[in-house]
Automatic annotation (TrEMBL):
The keyword Aminoacyl-tRNA synthetase does not apply. Residues 1-23 form the signal peptide. It comes from Triplophysa rosa (Cave loach). Its main location: membrane. This is UDP glucuronosyltransferase 5 family. Keywords: Glycosyltransferase, Membrane, Signal, Transferase, Transmembrane, Transmembrane helix. It is found in: Membrane. InterPro entries: UDP-glycosyltransferase (IPR050271), UDP_glucos_trans (IPR002213). GO terms for molecular function: UDP-glycosyltransferase activity. The keyword Transport does not apply. Belongs to the UDP-glycosyltransferase family.
């Protein structure tokens, strides 16, 4: 094979991979908000491969549009809904800032209460959604008649999981979170000795006290799953599924788990054959910016630009915090592009441009960008890694605290607490990340590692989705361990059985000794 043939071999393989799966029929059950943002990336890719896509959405959805050029929709009208839109996230943000000011013990207790309440709200919403579907006989028949090849879902909340199992469809996950924690917990061994729990702010090198804390958090997650999540779906499972069906078994039945994780970012941990890693799949080379935005960046000269965004769910911080940030921005020589909603801060400097939306990936990939001020959402973190841009993190909610801690451990980010943020502290941190090249060097190294792959994360994800369609599932990749009782899985019954022999031997030895002693004592008394 000549050099040119060797160069074309990967491309030929990829083209073969694309062509071998003629247009499939994909049913998609996504989550809203930022989860939908990254699900769309996969749907666009599937659309370019000629697949027909149908998206199940709620009539109350605040991100998923009913009409699209790449998919058709099935819109569900749950009879009763609770508002899980921007207002809820604003309330959660206020609560999070209040928790940051509490002592560690009180904060932990209050966090567990809040997590329980949040889980109830979101899971009850998922229950109403799937109930509305399963109780609509005409809709169920329509879905059966559509002859879908698979169901692609984000299983953070299990409505899509329940629908796939009800329709007996092969199932692929676009996943990071499941039930009360990281999705790995449900599918792969996750020893709490070195696998940090969700929201623990622990890394994979824990001392004894940290391992104790992590183990307690592990127990709390099991209790949340057993006492809060499972009971919510019990009646529905009894009504629509065979007797004895439990939610966890249905969740574990997915053929492929497309994990939004890259071990350049995540801590190493055990895995399984049907787990495929696609962290950063939404990242791509930067595209040209709109003319006005490009002109603003070019006006920064040698100093460059700072980008700030708080993601899709949080529009703005409290007024006083916005004022602190704006004042600090006004004192640096760089230009600033800030994704912002609401009235401009009174302390806003001439170097700062406020926009309600901007092309974040394209800005991060611009040669003038020097730093990313971020809340620590997964999408933004991976885009920063992809483009090698150091991060100044202001974590606000959910997994963001763990995300930025992982970057901090790798020397690619600095983390500040919003609840106690001052202008002096924020300004000092800005200068530190901008002027200390160690942050940039660390992030560029992560970028090199992240990009050094035989196939892009998005192409990898697409291959495995089409693999499941071609083979009508992938049960051969599922470990039988998920079907075992917990005591059998951990070999506790075997250990108990093996321990029984020395226990019996010891008991027999003691009994024989007592018997011999008794006979000797009786003989001695007779002689006396």
């Amino acid at each position: 094979m000549d050099v040119r043939s060797k160069q074309l071999a990967p491309l030929t393989c990829l083209l073969f991979m694309v062509c071998c799966c003629h247009g499939g029929n994909v049913l998609v059950f996504p989550e809203d908000g930022s989860h939908w943002v990254n699900m769309q990336v996969i749907l666009r890719k599937l659309h370019t491969h000629g697949h027909s896509i149908t998206v199940v959405r709620s009539s109350k959805s605040w991100y998923i549009q009913e009409s699209s050029s790449i998919y058709s929709t099935i819109t569900i009208n749950p009879m009763k809904t609770e508002d899980v839109g921007p207002d809820l996230f604003k309330m959660l943000l206020e609560r999070s800032l209040a928790l940051q000011k509490m002592s560690p013990l009180i904060r932990f207790i209050e966090q567990q209460k809040d997590i329980a309440n949040i889980l109830k709200v979101f899971h009850n919403g998922a229950l109403r959604m799937i109930s509305a579907i399963l109780e609509d006989a005409a809709l169920v028949e329509q879905m059966h008649d559509a002859k879908f090849d698979l169901l692609l879902t984000d299983p953070a909340f299990p409505a899509g999981v329940l629908l796939a199992n009800f329709l007996h469809l092969p199932m692929v996950y676009n996943v990071r979170w499941l039930n009360a924690g990281d999705a790995h917990m449900a599918i792969a061994p996750s020893p709490p000795s070195h696998v940090p729990m969700y929201n623990s702010l622990l890394d994979d090198q824990m001392n004894f006290l940290q391992r104790t804390e992590n183990f307690l958090r592990y127990l709390f997650s099991l209790l949340q799953e057993l006492c809060i999540i499972m009971p919510i779906y019990r009646e529905l499972l009894e009504r629509h599924f065979p007797p004895g069906t439990d939610l966890l078994s249905l969740q574990q039945s997915a053929d492929i788990w497309l994990m939004r994780v890259d071990f350049v970012f995540e801590f190493p941990r055990p895995t399984m054959p049907n787990v495929v890693y696609m962290g950063g799949f939404q990242c791509r080379p930067a595209q040209p910016l709109p003319v006005e935005l490009e002109d603003f960046l070019q006006s920064s000269g040698e100093h460059g630009v700072v980008i700030m965004s708080l993601g899709a769910t949080v529009g703005a911080l409290p007024t006083e915090v916005n004022g602190v940030i704006a004042s600090a921005f006004a004192k640096i020589p760089q230009k600033v592009v800030w994704r912002y909603h609401g009235d401009p801060p009174s302390s806003l400097g001439n170097n700062t441009l406020l926009l309600q939306w901007f092309p974040q990936n394209d800005l991060l990939g611009h040669p003038k960008t020097r730093m990313f001020v971020s809340h620590g959402g997964t999408n933004g973190i991976y885009e920063a890694i992809y483009h090698g841009v150091p991060v100044l993190a202001l974590p606000l909610l959910f997994d963001q605290f763990d995300n930025v801690m992982r970057l901090q451990v790798r020397g690619a980010a600095r983390v500040l607490q919003v609840a106690t943020l001052t202008e002096v502290e924020f300004l000092e941190a800005l200068k530190d990340v901008l002027e200390n090249h160690a942050y940039q060097n660390s992030m560029q190294k992560l970028s090199e590692l992240h990009r050094d792959l035989p196939l892009s994360p998005l192409d990898t994800a697409t291959f495995w989705i089409e693999y499941v369609m071609r083979h009508k599932g992938a049960p051969h990749l599922r470990s039988k361990g998920i079907n075992m009782a917990w005591y059998s899985y951990h070999s506790l019954d075997v250990i108990a059985f093996l321990l029984l022999f020395p226990v019996i031997a010891l008991w027999v030895s003691i009994y024989v000794c007592k018997l011999l002693c008794c006979r000797k004592s009786i003989k001695k008394r007779k002689m006396d």
